[in-house]
């Protein structure tokens, strides 16, 4: 760590790389570096962003801008990149940590400068910044107020205390990746460090710390740590959290089970440790919530988890969304205590799962619950999905279009998104999914909704998000078991007043919608409604005949 901190202070070094296998502790390591760098006042600003296998450039830009107190304006990636680049060039000492690169990332397209020199165009842009943005920046960081005041009056000269070259660092970049070649070849990083697995002695020390004991460990405990965790800190912590406070007989039984599993096939350390932790979760409710978390992708919203679990009736004895929210927050904290999920420190609305834990959890879900989850892949064989209880397909290509029908008699959860406006779902596609309780369709042009969903009488949650809905939607009012309906981000020609027939509806989301016609009185009929989301929507109410911005 001291070597990396020293390189960060070297004015000749712009980028530093850190590589090591997944689960070895790279993220924890760079967070500690960020903490020390700030505590020792090496940098004025430190921004940490998780990149993931499929980076979202806009989200990365926004996360960096948030730390800077900068509001990015404009819709285009290039506009935001220019704004971010100019701001980072103005900062004297900034550290940007991009964690978990899987492939080449275009830093210039992001707006992360590789050259700290400030050109004339940057000066002109900065002097033309609007007054409100300057005031906002001053409010976020009062230290810039004196400089900004001078820039508002370009004729006034203010002596600025310059830092010695040894103290000026500009924008430093720290990258992490599992693959050294990503850093050296694709990102062209010259200064690269490696973080390795723990040796046996350090692994046992970490394990003792996790389980809270300083006593000498029995041989079968040591064997579990040395042989099945293979020096991976995440695996060691996961096993320790699962079996702490358990009796010696439980440890011994677990070792015997691991030895039997070896005869069946080779398992990775993370799969072994995660299965151990999963098996020791206190009840089926907590296990089901954890597997559902794993299906939800990167940084999912807790409220989505609430709605899914409520609609699937995972939460025993819970009949309102308020009760569901309280129960899910309690369960999420238990999963966090077991080192299975991470709550977002800056917001209580999101959670995250390390991708290795997610992969291992999805493996369990597939083997034990017939759950199919695909992200950024290609679907070309629908027949293999017929035994599934849950199907989630996101950011993936549908090869040869949808089949006319698919027989999934046990399916309860179906989610699919599309970026292709010409991809159509056949009218009989859902006929073999009589038990379906949650249906989420995103990004579709739906002109045959009645034919599509009339057979889904058990549906409790229907989400038609970012869709174009130009058909008659009255069929929705016939699905009497619906508890949650969302049209978020959709264009709707005629909003179905028949929703007023859903006397058990508890949540309705029409945020970010464009609705050409809506009859307002139907809302008064929804006597069980707990949540109504209507922000940033453009709605033509039929009663008043004029446009209202929600």
Automatic annotation (TrEMBL):
What the entry lists under InterPro entries is as follows:
AAA+_ATPase, Apaf_helical, LRR_dom_sf, NB-ARC, P-loop_NTPase, Plant_NBS-LRR
Keywords on this record? ATP-binding, Nucleotide-binding, Plant defense
Which parts of the sequence are annotated with region: Disordered? 131-165
The annotated regions of Basic and acidic residues compositional bias extend over: 131-149
Report the domain of life of the source organism: Eukaryota
Taken from the record, one Pfam family name reads NB-ARC
Q: Which GO terms describe its biological process?
A: defense response
The molecular function GO annotations come to: ATP binding
Domain AAA+ ATPase: from-to ranges: 12-203
The UniProt entry's sequence similarity note says: Belongs to the disease resistance NB-LRR family.
Q: What's the protein here called?
A: AAA+ ATPase domain-containing protein
């Amino acid at each position: 760590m001291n070597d990396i901190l020293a390189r960060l202070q070297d004015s000749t070094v712009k980028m530093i790389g850190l590589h090591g296998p997944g689960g070895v502790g790279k993220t924890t390591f760079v967070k500690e570096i960020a903490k020390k760098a700030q505590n020792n006042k090496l940098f004025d600003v430190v921004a940490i962003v998780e990149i993931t296998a499929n980076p979202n450039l806009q989200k990365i830009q926004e996360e960096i801008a948030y730390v800077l107190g900068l509001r990015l304006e404009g819709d285009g990636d290039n506009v935001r990149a220019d704004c971010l680049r100019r701001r980072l060039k103005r900062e004297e000492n900034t550290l940007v940590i991009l964690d978990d690169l899987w492939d080449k990332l275009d830093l210039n397209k992001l707006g992360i400068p590789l050259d700290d020199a400030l050109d004339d165009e940057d000066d002109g842009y900065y002097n033309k910044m609007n007054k409100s943005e300057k005031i906002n920046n001053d409010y976020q960081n009062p230290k810039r107020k004196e400089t900004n005041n001078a820039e508002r009056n370009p004729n006034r000269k203010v002596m600025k205390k310059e830092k010695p070259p040894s103290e000026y660092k500009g924008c430093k970049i720290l990258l992490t990746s599992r693959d050294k070649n990503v850093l050296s070849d694709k990102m062209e990083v010259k200064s690269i460090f490696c973080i390795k697995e723990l040796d046996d002695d350090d692994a046992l020390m970490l394990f003792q710390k996790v389980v809270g004991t300083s006593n000498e460990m029995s041989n079968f405990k040591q064997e579990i740590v040395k042989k099945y965790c293979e020096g991976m800190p995440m695996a060691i912590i996961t096993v320790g959290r699962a079996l702490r406070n358990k009796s010696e007989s439980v440890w011994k039984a677990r070792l015997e089970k691991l030895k039997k599993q070896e005869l069946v096939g080779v398992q990775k350390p993370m799969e072994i440790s995660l299965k151990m932790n999963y098996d020791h979760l206190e009840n089926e409710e907590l296990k089901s919530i954890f597997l559902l978390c794993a299906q939800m992708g990167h940084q999912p919203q807790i409220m989505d988890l609430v709605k899914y679990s409520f609609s699937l009736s995972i939460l025993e004895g819970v009949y309102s969304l308020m009760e569901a929210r309280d129960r899910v927050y309690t369960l999420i904290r238990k999963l966090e205590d077991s080192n299975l999920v991470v709550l977002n420190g800056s917001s209580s609305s999101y959670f995250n799962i390390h991708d290795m834990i997610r992969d291992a959890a999805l493996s369990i879900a597939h083997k034990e619950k017939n759950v199919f989850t695909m992200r950024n892949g290609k679907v070309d064989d629908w027949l293999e999905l017929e035994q599934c209880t849950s199907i989630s397909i996101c950011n993936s290509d549908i090869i040869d279009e949808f089949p006319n029908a698919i027989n999934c008699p046990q399916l309860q959860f179906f989610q699919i998104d599309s970026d292709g406006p010409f991809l159509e779902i056949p009218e009989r596609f859902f006929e073999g999914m009589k038990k379906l309780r949650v249906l989420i369709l995103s990004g579709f042009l739906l002109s045959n909704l009645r034919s599509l969903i009339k057979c889904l009488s058990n549906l409790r949650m229907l989400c038609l998000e970012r869709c174009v809905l130009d058909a008659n939607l009255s069929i929705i009012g016939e699905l009497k078991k619906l508890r949650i309906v969302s049209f978020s981000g959709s264009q709707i020609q005629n909003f179905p007043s028949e929703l007023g027939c859903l006397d058990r509806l508890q949540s309705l989301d029409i945020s970010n919608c464009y609705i050409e016609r809506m009859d307002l009185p139907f809302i008064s009929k929804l006597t069980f409604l707990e949540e109504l989301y209507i922000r940033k929507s453009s709605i033509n109410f039929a009663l008043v005949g004029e446009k209202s911005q929600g």
